[in-house]
Each structure stands twice: as C-alpha cells, then as structure tokens.
Amino acid sequence: MVKILWVDDEIELLKPHVLFLQSKGYEVETCNNGYDAIDMATETAYDLIILDEMMPGMTGLETLPLIKDARPNTPVIMVTKSEEENLMDKAIGSKIADYIIKPVNPNQVLLSIKKNVHSQQLVSEQTSADYRAEFQRISLSYQAAESFSDWCTIYRKLTNWDIELSGSTDQSIKEVIRYQKNEANQEFCKFVRQNYWYWINERNDRTPVMSHTLMRNRIFPVVDANAKTTLLLIDNFRYDQWRSIGPLLRGYFNVETDDFYCAILPTATQYARNAIFAGLMPLAIDKIMPNKWLNDNEEGGKNQYEEEFLRRQLASNGKSWKTSFDKLVRPEAGRKLVDNFHRIYDADFSVIVYNFLDILSHARTETDIIRELTEDDASFRSLTRSWFEHSELFTMLKLLSEHGHTVIITSDHGTVRVDNPIRVTADRETSANLRYKTGKNMAYNPREVYEVTRPQDIQLPSGNLSSSFIFAYNHDFIVYNNDANKFIRYYRDTFQHGGISMEEMIVPYIVLQPKR
After folding, report:
1. Is 497 helix (H, G, I), strand (E, B) or coil?
2. Model confidence over 229-285: pLDDT tens digits?
3. Which of 3, 227, 256, 430 would bridge with 439, disulfide CB 3.0–4.6 Å?
4. For the chain, first and last CA: distance in Å?
C-alpha cells in the first residue's frame, strides 16, 4: 500500500480529502507543522509527502530542504496559495516533484499522486498493452518482407519495443518480446540464405547498400555536400546502442539520416571493415593487393592497411579531399587525439575508428564482473550509455559540433548474444571465430548452418583449394566436439559476431548535422 504524509496547519479542514484518498486505497498520515513533519519523515519511509507552503512557525519552503536531507528520493508535492514566479522558482529549485494551487481539489491531488508514484507502472502497463496490440501485425510482417529494407523496418520496430519494454515489471511481456525477436531472426536468416548470393553477384535495385559499396553510395555523397565531414566508425555498434546514446547528442546535433546498411559475411572486422575502406569484397582485395590480405589461418594483423585502402578508394573515385585517419584502440589514444584535434578540424574528410565496444564485448566474455553487469541486452545498452557519457568520444563529438562538422556514425558490424551451441568437427587449421568457421575437412549438420563450399561464390578468398565457410544463424555459436561442454559453459550468453542475425548484419547508419 502507498503511504502518504500530508502536512498542513489546517489539516482538520482537509479531512474529506484525506478520506477520499483512503477510499482510493492510500494510507494517509497527517500532521499540522513542519517540525513534526521532519520527525515523521525521518522515522518513516513515505512514498510521497504533500506539504503546505504557508504554515506558521516553519514554512513549507523551510521544511522542504530538511525533509529532503532525511529522504532525498521521496517526492514532495507543494501546496500553495500563491502563483508568484519567484516562489515557484524557489520550490522547483528545492526539487519538488509537483505543486498544487489552493483551493485543493481532491481529483487534482489524486492525479498528482498517480503522476509521481504510479507513473512508471502506468506507462509500463500502457506500453505492454500497446505492444500486445501490435504483436500480431509484426509477426505477419515477416511473411510480407521481400527486401532488406523491409527487414530494416521490422528490426527497427522490434528494437524500439525491446527498449520500451525493458523497464517493464511485467516479466511475461519481456518473454514475449524475446520470443518475437528470436522468431524474427529465424525468418531473417532464411531471407539472407535465399538472397545473399544474388546480392553479391547480381547487383540490381533490390541489392542493399553493403560494406563494400557503403563509401561510394552513402558516405562520399555526404562529404561532397558538406564543407567538413567526420566519419566515426564504432566497432561492434548496434542500433539499440545508438538509441541509448542518441539522446545525449540532441543538444549538439540534429539527426539528418537514421538508416541502415547491410554488413557482408563474415560479419567480422577482418572482412567487413576492410571491405568498407577498400570499397572491394575480400576476394578482390586479395587478388589486387595480395600482400595486404591475410586469411584466417595466417599469422599477423588482419586490419593493418585500412588507411591505405581508403586512400586508394578515394583516388579511384576522383576524390582529392584533405583527409585525416585515426584508429583508437585504447583510452589514452582518445585523450591524445583530443589534445591534437586541430588535425580533424583542418581535414575536409576525417575518419575516426573507435574500437572500445569490441573491447567491451571481449571483456564481458573474459571478466565475471562485466558479465554480471551486462546480463542481457538492456544492461549492455545501459553500460554502453554510461561509458559513452564519460568517454573521450563524447568529448570529440561535442568538439565536432562546435566546429560545424557533419558527422556520420556507423559500424562495420554488430554483435549478438549467443546461447545455442552447434557442434562441428574440424582440424587445427580451422578458424577460431564462434559465429563462422573457414577451413577444410569440416564435419557439421548442413541444416544448422549456412554453408558455402566455394568461397569465391560469395567473393571470399580461401586458405587453400578445399576450404569452405560455414556461418551460424540467429543466436547459435559453433563449438568443436573436443571439450565441447567446457566451451559451451564459457561462451554461452556472451556477445559474438561473424554470423547471420539482424543484430550483426543490419548496421546503423546515422548522419548528424551540427546545431550552430
């Protein structure tokens, strides 16, 4: 039961109001002066306090800060005869939750109580009802989805509902949205399996913008249209994470474009990011620049030539912009770049690759405390927002806004939380990634994976003549039969990338214009 303290020097005259609230199921205690109110608030944890502003001895405004000292999180509704602006400023500055002008109307009091005590519950109940009403429409949309754009619309809706429902106390509705996201991912995986070969080999109007065409089709036109543009590529960045940090940027940027593009397979940094900067599929990179491509089974860094790839793509497209390129892997690199940010200001087109979220995903796998802090997608979003709010990246974006830069935010791929193991037998030369495998002599159930026996068919290089690729679907992850149970326990419920899911392949593409 909600417990309320009502403080008024004429409390006897308000007895009908108190009885009205009690009839609505509230427990109401009363007192007629500020001194008693402070004692009662100190001894008892009330859910809400109604406080008269004009009382003899100690006024409501004098009582308020002392109540707040004792109960800083208890909402206080101020009741006043005056509508003077300076009085309201004082009350609001003292962090009142609401105020009511006398004469007091019981329904007005009830409304204020509902707003300040039950608002989260009421919003949660309404949100759940709205989602239940739309559940069937979303489910029916899977069968009607004929293009990548259709699936982007579905993914956006599901992500928005997932975020809206994350604060709900109704566990059953959270189970429903999890079920529906899983069902949607199953259908999306079928869609990709049916269309991916055609996207890569028979490009037409139905082919989405993909990693290797992102620069030419989306980014270069924005740079052409604006005096200064910065591309911020955040590794492992998903749409729900954009939704979590986007509100922090409202004071600095207007969102001009909120869209998606399709990451190539494998949805892994080695393949997808190199394709973005080279403007080529991995097989073409390997053929044209064989000394700058390493296959999974070869030793060495797999993303060492991104800046060189970008400069080659700029030249081949006739772009002579003054550019800068920075890849930030550790926090100290971010601080160093902020100290030398004039290089970014001077460039027509600057590129910043930020690797922190990839590091965070790996830390979640390897560190128990991070895993506990990010037990689900909602908590992972919360950690992303907390990191961003105190990061050098946020500082950089504020500086870019001040200097009038257009900003493009995107990623090379997303990441998905895995929970269902798929067993594979393979030799030691097979790649280590949990969401895809490439190698020879692999044994697996072909119904459980998307198999590509000829990598060149989807423009991927192969380690040797008999190499093939397999990709995990949805929330699956691939484990070897040797010590399978050990790896299943270690990697279940971790965030991984490289396979086929909406979270990995449907990548946010955001264009921000500075608020001048």
Report:
1. coil
2. 999 999 999 999 999 999 999 999 999 999 999 999 999 999 999 999 999 999 999
3. 430
4. 50
Determine the Cα–Cα distance for residues 235 and 292; give it in Å rounded to an integer. 21
- Two tokens at 490? 């270690």
**CB-CB contact of 259 with 435 (8 Å):** no
Q: What are phi and psi of 414, to 5 degrees?
A: -100, -160
Residues with Cβ within 8 Å of 5's Cβ and at least 6 positions away in sequence, in order, are: 28, 29, 30, 31, 37, 40, 41, 44, 46, 48, 49, 50
CA dihedral 480, 482, 483, 489 (to 10 degrees): 20
Residue 455 DSSP label: G
Cis bond upstream, residue 65 (ω within 30)? no
Give which of 504, 235, 274 is closest to 358, Cα–Cα: 235
Distance from chain centroid for Cα 66 = 40
Tens-place pLDDT, residues 303-322: 899 999 999 999 999 999 99
506: which 2 tokens? 């449907």
* Residue carrying the six token digits 């390997």: 286
| Residue 222 and residue 229 in contact, taking contact as beta carbons nearer than 8 Å | yes
Phi–psi pair at 339, nearest 5 degrees:
-70, -25
Of 435, 440, 442, nearest to 478 by C-alpha is 435
**pTM reported for the whole predicted model:** 0.80
HSE-CB at 125 with a 13 A cutoff on CA atoms is 5
pLDDT attached to residue 476:
97
The answer to whether the beta carbons of residues 389 and 494 sit under 8 Å apart is no
A 10 A CB-CB count for 483 gives 10
Radius of gyration of the chain (CA): 29
**Amino acid identity, position 212:** H
C-alpha span between 319 and 220 (Å, rounded):
9
Show the 3-state SS of 209-268.
Answer: CEHHHHHHHHHHHHHHHCCCEEEEEECCCCHHHHHHHHHHHCCCEEEEEEEEEECCCCCC
Q: Which sign does the torsion angle of CA 326, 329, 334, 335 carry?
A: negative
Alpha-carbon distance 73 to 270, whole Å?
49
